[in-house]
């Protein structure tokens, strides 16, 4: 029989307190030397209830952990912890586990030592390098999913683990959460916080208690938090692969393993409840949740949060020297705030959605047909539906930015004869969207708003009971739901609270011009806001029903739009099924963008994003003059350029006038790729030479010829190895990270000239040199002064022509120059341009001299069906007019200069910003891990772009290492928006832990 001291396990409720054993580092060193045979320096590591030390041996051996357990924990409990760690290490070898060190005979390297509060087990554990995920750093979706995966793996590994040391009563066991809070909540000094903790605990416990009998119980680690998950060294973003601290191993609800981990995520910068759903999905993929467990996850998160707050305050009070416990108080309160910021049913629904257990989608719920219509003598044909969604025509021309848009649309509809105007349930309203915001706005309606164009009587739709009646507000039962009606406060209801009413009884009289808000919610559910944020809409809508049938209107569920029925994930699946996947999309989980306005892009959820990447639309999205010009021309004529019409002449005249002599002849095409392809053919045809020299790390297009001269490794990883024999490359003249940096960048031009001269000496004179005039793929790096002058001269000396790719940088984007070649003070022989020319309409051009253009006839004739069509020509003219009239080149110089100075100021604060490149509104922020080695911060850049999206900014990486933020917004961007971008970049860098 085992001795009692071995068999005994802790019962928290018999303990007054569990202070950390008081052991100084010097004492720890003595314990390690005298009891464990280790001579080392001891460094204290914080802990809630144990004493932990990192031991550094002097002879260079790896560090180890000295863990002195709380004296309240018996030997059998320690053995259970070590056995659980060994089991997981064996079952999941891909994970690093802080197992106990063992002596040659296999016994644990441990001893018993005396402390002020009694004998305690001291043992040596493996040290796992890499650091924990603790701290305030924002955790990206991949990190959170990785945490969920690990929790799932641990849960499956421990499923069948049995040990007498698991029979414990811990304060952290969610099965005892109600008792723990009852015992410790008195230590929360602030009355409002104490009440909040008790109230949340009572609600969550009531919910979990109903499910308790159905929740599987097994061995659990119960502390797989950010403090105890160790990141893989050098992983970016941080990814956990290690587990420490098995001190809370016990038997409990299996789902508590996940809930504990989720709660630890909630204090990190920028994390809200919806952000943890990737962890739920990842856990569910490894260890599937039952429907009851999915229902219990969030209530247990709330219980964990309440226990953390109460226990933290208690520990700080009884263990005054415990800096670790005191430092955790603020983050524990933030965990509680986040865990309780939404009603339990909302988060339960979101978790059910995340695990595929949602059942009937929230939006399909609809009200039963009423016995009497809610509004007497008003039928569906009398009601005009008001569409305020992203796809509504009424939102055109930036109407969504006007606070008075809804009122104007209602007034107009009523003036046109509508008896009433009604909004749509569950359709995100764009009118509630701020143009710039770090978080999504509440845009999704949970009911219907109705405005009256004539007097109307509100009547009881079905027999029921009045739950509340007050000026401007009535609530009554409607079957198993509650019908909520809100009127102007001046309206006095005709019913009284608690009255039983029959169908058809009058509720209120409303005059012409009055409004009423109609909502149906679960009778036993929480109050539901009129508008909710899209991330939480599925949870809120599950508590409501479309009230449209009460008005005689079809329910929202009658919609047949495929993407609505299948969700945005379904739309992506459909895209992948028919749209070649090599045509990628931004972001792993992209927002669905269906509208743009100026420098804003708008999702179907009603979220506005600042567009920092769209150099395709220099005038801004949905420019009215372009829309009107296209519409007008399409009503008249659109054909090919072989017909005789004025617009193609006027446009090519205007375009040629923007270039210096002798560039006076224009070809019109549809894209930058076509323009480069044609430019190369012109050069080769005019020079009679087929060899082409191109810059490395450049991208010029996807056609055969433009792809042949493209050597960007991100666009084609095998670019250099697959060039045709007629393409010759010279070093990228990158003065920041190229072979020659800073002042030494002047060496690039002579080296390129030498290549051109060597080709000529070998009997292969160059027919064309092609290069961007301002290095775009490198993030807007200016070419070294005089570079093009020397290279162009060398090419021309051997009979070749200079081809300038202005597709990205031309048309005033650089601010100080309309064309990039002007910065280099050269004149090319051929200029290729596109993108900005059409403000999103497919339009490109090649401009050259008449002599070069005429030589094309030696190769046949040229024709482009829609290049130079009437519509394309009118678009081109309109863009040029708007660029001039709105001074967008000047705006690029002014706003771009302001933005660059803001970005350079950030570079002074964040070591990860290696350089800020560019001019005007063609900028690049290059991110590096080390400013000396310039090691590219590729993964950090990707993580930053994802975080920026969450903060309302669309920005993407560029460069061969994808470590440069490309900043090419519409030229209409204003200083406020530029400042918002800089502010969000500042915030994101801080949240991701990049502060100096």
Features:
flat; nine-stranded mixed β-sheet; seven-stranded mixed β-sheet; 996 residues; alpha+beta
Describe the structure in your own words.
There is one protein chain. The protein is an alpha+beta fold and 996 residues long. It contains 27 helices and 39 strands. Strands 12, 13, 15, 17, 18, 19, 20, 22 and 24 form a nine-stranded mixed sheet that branches. A seven-stranded mixed sheet has the order 28-34-33-32-31-29-30, sandwiched between helices. A five-stranded antiparallel sheet has the order 1-2-3-6-5, covered by helices on one side. A hairpin with an 8-residue loop joins strand 8 and strand 9 (240-243). Helix 6 runs antiparallel to helix 9 (291-318). The longest helix has 28 residues, at 291-318. The radius of gyration is 34 Å and the shape is flat.
Brief synopsis:
The protein is built from 27 helices and 39 strands.
Task: Note the topology.
Blueprint: H1 4-7, H2 25-36, E1 40-45, E2 51-57, E3 64-68, H3 75-91, E4 96-97, E5 110-115, E6 118-126, H4 141-157, H5 177-184, H6 191-211, E7 217-220, E8 229-231, E9 240-243, E10 250-253, H7 255-265, H8 277-286, H9 291-318, H10 323-327, H11 329-339, H12 344-354, E11 375-376, E12 383-385, H13 405-415, E13 420-422, E14 444-445, E15 448-452, E16 456-459, E17 464-470, E18 473-478, E19 481-486, E20 500-501, E21 506-510, E22 515-522, E23 531-532, H14 537-541, E24 544-545, H15 562-578, E25 593-597, E26 600-603, E27 608-611, H16 624-636, H17 646-657, E28 665-669, H18 672-687, E29 691-695, H19 704-708, E30 727-730, H20 748-761, E31 766-772, H21 787-797, E32 801-805, H22 820-823, E33 830-833, E34 844-848, H23 850-855, H24 870-885, H25 888-909, E35 913-919, E36 922-927, H26 938-950, E37 953-954, E38 956-958, E39 964-967, H27 975-991
Parallel strand pairs: 4-9, 12-13, 27-37, 29-30, 29-31, 31-32, 32-33
Antiparallel strand pairs: 1-2, 2-3, 3-6, 5-6, 7-10, 8-9, 11-16, 13-15, 14-23, 15-22, 16-21, 17-18, 17-20, 18-19, 19-22, 22-24, 25-26, 26-27, 28-34, 33-34, 35-36, 36-39, 38-39
